[in-house]
Amino acid sequence: MKASDHVARFLRVQGVKHVYEVVGGMITHLVDSIHRQPGVKLVSVHHEQAAAFAADAAGRVTGVPGVAMATSGPGATNLLTGIGSCYFDSSPAVFITGQVNLHEQKGRRKIRQLGFQETDIAAMAAPVTKAAFRARKAAELPELLEESFRLAISGRPGPVLLDIPMDLQRHEVRAPRGRRVAPAPPSRPAKAEVAALLRALGAAKRPLVLVGGGVRASRADSAARRCLELLNVPVVHSLMAVDVLPAGHPLRMGLIGSYANRWANHAVGRSDLLIVLGSRLDVRQTGADTASFKKGREIFHVDCDAGEINNRVKGCRRIDADLSAFFEAAAAALPAKLPARAAWAGEIARLRARWPDVAELAGLRGINPNVFMHELSARSARAGVFVADVGQHQMWAAQSLDLRAGQRFMTSGGMGAMGFGLPAAIGAAFAQPGRAQVVIAGDGGFQLNLQELQTVVRNKLPIKIVIVNNRCHGMVRQFQQSYFKERYASTFWGYSAPDFAAVARAYGIGSARIAGPKQVAQGLSALWREPQAPFLLEVGVETFANVYPKMAFGLPMTEMEPLAKPVAMEGT
């Protein structure tokens, strides 16, 4: 069969239901074949970066690699930010790029380019993919496709790029109908390692579990909840694991890190045993002072990526294993639920009562963002995924959303890419047909992929957009306040945003704007009045509202602004 027809059929067999793309000359064969393939829908977006973010979200929600496609040259390079986001956040995805015909490629010639839009996307993508393949012969395509999907879902998931010259797409290939590609077998923990962890847990007085994004990446969230309930230990989470335990779960103790729930960082500081499950322990989790993070506690670190263990925080007891296998082994080793430590749980509860999230911005004029996030989640029972863009709103959401069982929280963590929110919600909406999604974005980040409102309208997607508008690039403005003597170049000075409610109406989307606490209930009612219709709610907040608490850089993670001041300028 024609090679592009084989690609389309292969995608259907793998369970891919949507391919996100912007059309271009070098993928016209692929576009035509996918268009004619029953069961696979082309989703035409308006920028390739948006296609990549949508594929990222689709892979996270379903576990089936999200697929995005772009033509050669600028189309392919526009994918790179989204590819990097998948790589850093362990999202399974396959990116297919069209390339100029083989006879138009420069090869070893000492020239910059031979064919129009010829660009070596595989070389550019290699550092942020698990593999970047170049098809050289049509006969290679079946094997390359299988390997791309296997790599994307094996071990620590991530993106793979496959670059296919246009002339190969129209060649004939012989390929079996194919089967669903299976991941490589998971790495399993040694029984002795699990036993050592359980012995340490039995001796600890103030144990704590830190769950990270690896729990979701390994598709082990249900097994994680069962195992955590057997361990019966208080649980804190990273930014990428906000949704592992639902709000109100008795073991859920809150967000740690740079913009943590203050009580959660203090709980880490007081713990004598920390069990780290699928978290990188990067600087935004531990702070720069790794010695104080390790001091006074034993740390067991479980991860499928051996390089992440004892990387920044040294002296951890390592358990190299896939989390799904670890949870199975730990649960099997426990005859029954372990007894709770009432004194330790009470200590954390007192910390929480002392420093509630809604009091961090006490006295703020207008809408308190933390209070608003609680109200938004209370009114959004229908939502499948809360997608946070990148900025101050992202941290307020992570601090204060109350997610129900089955609801997801999604953001661009490692890449921290502004513009992620709306396209990712599009991918989530297609992955959960008929279920509404909530985007939480800032006025700055939303403008990076605002054009995808047209994709929402054309596909009648039930996406609820909440724009937290502080009329500036708030995260960097806060940084300038701390370190640049309140010189707000490019964040507040020289920055502007449109009337988002009017922009939404121009696209045919209902909208409203609120600016004070008394308007919140009315605004949220408007947001959900028609559950299956898109809607944009613009929420005005004080320009100089800061995200607090914030780790005081250079000090232990328990020292947080505004009660403490940084001793050095943070580098990240």
Can you walk me through this structure?
The protein is of the alpha/beta class and 572 residues long. It has 3 domains: 3-169, 3-Layer(aba) Sandwich (Rossmann fold), CATH 3.40.50; 191-354, TPP-binding domain (Rossmann fold); 358-548, Rossmann fold, CATH 3.40.50.970. It is built from 24 helices and 20 strands. It has a 6-stranded parallel sheet with strand order 2-1-3-4-6-5, sandwiched between helices. Strand 17 (510-514), helix 24 (520-528) and strand 18 (535-540) form a beta-alpha-beta unit. Helix 3 crosses helix 19 (421-431). The radius of gyration is 24 Å and the shape is globular. The relative contact order is 0.10. The mean pLDDT is 96.
Protein topology:
Layout: H1 3-13, E1 18-21, H2 28-35, E2 41-44, H3 48-62, E3 66-70, H4 74-78, H5 80-88, E4 93-99, H6 121-125, E5 131-134, H7 141-153, E6 159-165, H8 166-169, H9 191-203, E7 207-211, H10 214-217, H11 221-231, E8 235-237, E9 252-255, H12 262-270, E10 273-277, H13 283-286, H14 290-294, E11 298-303, E12 317-320, H15 323-333, H16 342-354, H17 369-378, E13 385-388, H18 392-400, E14 408-411, H19 421-431, E15 437-442, H20 443-446, H21 453-458, E16 463-469, H22 474-483, H23 500-506, E17 510-514, H24 520-528, E18 535-540, E19 550-551, E20 560-561
Parallel strand pairs: 1-2, 1-3, 3-4, 4-6, 5-6, 7-8, 7-10, 8-9, 10-11, 11-12, 13-14, 13-15, 15-16, 16-18, 17-18
Antiparallel strand pairs: 19-20
Helix pairs in contact: 1-2, 3-5, 3-19, 9-15, 11-15, 12-16, 17-18
